């Protein structure tokens, strides 16, 4: 008896650099952008390769790593909190600021809520208690206030900053 | 520098929702500081809801506005409310972190100055409406530029804030008499630049911090209470010519045991030393 070949169970994603990366449907599902591809009628899982021109192989694999770890650890008991925390810390430690920002972009493009939340939290942790100058530099924000405008915003918000420590 | 350009593009390309998301993870006492980054961030923070109605609607509109504001995600809903009522009158309410609210009645058109009085009763038995939400408790209120046209509205707003701990009253022109009655929560009161103020009645037994700037007026502290910090700036002199040094005795009793007391020179020489002799 001839066995019908196992239907292909993974989704093929092609980052802008490097080779196609296969992910399980469960992981792909968490990426809203991919999910909308899959739901499209013309999508055939066996042959279609989803191109991701805005995401590098590095970013994609980082996101997949994160999702893999977290979806696996969810299935286990709740005493995994410690190791999850450790994983998250390690995950961020390997990322320089620039990489972190790029990854945020990729996560936003792929629309992965879990990773987005995690990265937004990481950015918030990095900029909190930092000076305006530092945060501008971090975000690459160009200060487009005129001197008068900046004075005005400080003056009209003096009441709101009362009791908040100066940086 | 090419690298800078890439960075610039990276963050300018991020949608506002992501910026809002990052802000939601910042501690709420410092998240507003991102308003200083650039005009884009300012515009995110300065989005305002505009509503029209009558003076009677104001409590309900304000209550809805406060209910919608999400302290944990402050860019999700505007923190400013612009309410137009009674033809040309506008009130601007702005929320800031830690239960702060600024209510600004600055008129858009020139208003004839007519004298008026304000009475704030911050005790539970006086609460008429119970529509202010429990999700956003106003503990600090800045009240700015009230005039005779808006005094009733201002009184009814303030009198509904039973959780008020700090009250700041700024630049209310025409305000002649102010009376504040709070027996439980109010511990900080700041009265600044209300140039026509002549009488101030304080029934505020829990008051710890009192700051006053403007012409010297009659101050009637109803009960004897001890302040821990008092700052009285009467640099502009007395508000009327028939002010006697004995008129200041009740205030002296209230301030003289303060841990920190700031007075300007003439007040110290003419009123404080006089009484001590």
UniProtKB/TrEMBL annotation, chain A:
Matching Pfam families: Skp1, Skp1_POZ
* Listed name of the protein: SKP1-like protein
Entry's InterPro entries? SKP1, SKP1-like, SKP1-like_dim_sf, SKP1/BTB/POZ_sf, Skp1_comp_dimer, Skp1_comp_POZ
Tell me the superkingdom of the source. Eukaryota
- Supply the source organism for this entry: Lupinus luteus
Q: Which SMART domains match?
A: Skp1
Please list the residue ranges annotated as the SKP1 component dimerisation domain.
114-160
Which Gene3D superfamilies does the entry mention? Potassium Channel Kv1.1, Chain A (3.30.710.10)
TrEMBL record, chain B:
| All copies of domain F-box, residue ranges | 11-47
Q: So which residues are the signal peptide here?
A: none
In terms of Pfam families, this protein maps to:
F-box
Q: What is this protein called?
A: F-box domain-containing protein
């Amino acid at each position: 008896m001839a066995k019908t070949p196992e239907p292909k169970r993974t989704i093929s994603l092609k980052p802008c650099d490097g080779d196609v990366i296969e992910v399980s449907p469960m992981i792909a599902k968490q990426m809203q952008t991919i999910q909308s591809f899959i739901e499209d009628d013309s999508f055939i899982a066996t042959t279609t390769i989803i191109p991701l021109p805005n995401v590098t192989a590095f970013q994609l694999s980082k996101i997949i790593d994160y999702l893999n770890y977290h979806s696996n650890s969810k299935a286990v008991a709740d005493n995994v909190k410690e190791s999850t925390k450790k994983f998250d810390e390690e995950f961020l430690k390997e990322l320089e600021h620039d990489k972190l920002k790029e990854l945020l972009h990729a996560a936003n493009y792929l629309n992965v809520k879990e990773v987005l939340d995690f990265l937004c939290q990481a950015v918030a942790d990095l900029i909190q208690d930092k000076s305006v100058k530092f945060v501008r530099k971090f975000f690459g924000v160009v200060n487009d206030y005129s001197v008068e405008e900046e004075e005005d915003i400080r003056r009209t918000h003096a009441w709101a900053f009362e009791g908040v420590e100066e940086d | 520098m090419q690298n800078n350009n890439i960075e610039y593009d990276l963050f300018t390309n991020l949608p506002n929702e992501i910026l809002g998301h990052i802000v939601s993870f910042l501690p709420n006492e410092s998240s507003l500081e991102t308003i200083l980054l650039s005009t884009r961030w300012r515009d995110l923070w300065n989005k305002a809801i505009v509503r029209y109605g009558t003076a009677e609607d104001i409590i309900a509109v304000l209550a809805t506005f406060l209910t919608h504001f999400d302290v944990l995600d402050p860019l999700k809903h505007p923190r400013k409310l612009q309410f137009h009522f009674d033809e040309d009158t506008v009130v601007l309410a702005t929320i800031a972190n830690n239960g702060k609210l600024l209510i600004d009645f600055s008129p858009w058109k020139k208003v004839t100055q007519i004298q008026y009085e304000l009475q704030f009763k911050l005790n539970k038995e006086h609460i008429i409406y119970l529509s202010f939400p429990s999700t956003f408790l106003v503990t600090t209120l800045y009240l700015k530029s009230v005039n005779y046209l808006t005094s009733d509205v201002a009184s009814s707003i303030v009198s509904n804030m039973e959780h008020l701990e700090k009250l700041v009253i700024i630049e209310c022109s025409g305000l002649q008499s102010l009376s504040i009655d709070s027996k439980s929560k109010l511990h900080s009161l700041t009265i600044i630049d209300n140039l026509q103020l002549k009488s101030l009645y304080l029934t505020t037994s829990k008051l710890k911090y009192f700051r006053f700037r403007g012409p010297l007026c009659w101050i009637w502290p109803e009960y004897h209470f001890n302040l821990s910090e008092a700052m009285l700036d009467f640099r502009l002199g007395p508000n009327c010519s028939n002010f006697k040094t004995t008129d200041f005795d009740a205030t002296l009793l209230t301030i003289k045991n303060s841990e920190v007391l700031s007075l300007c020179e003439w007040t110290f020489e003419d009123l404080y030393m006089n009484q001590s002799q």
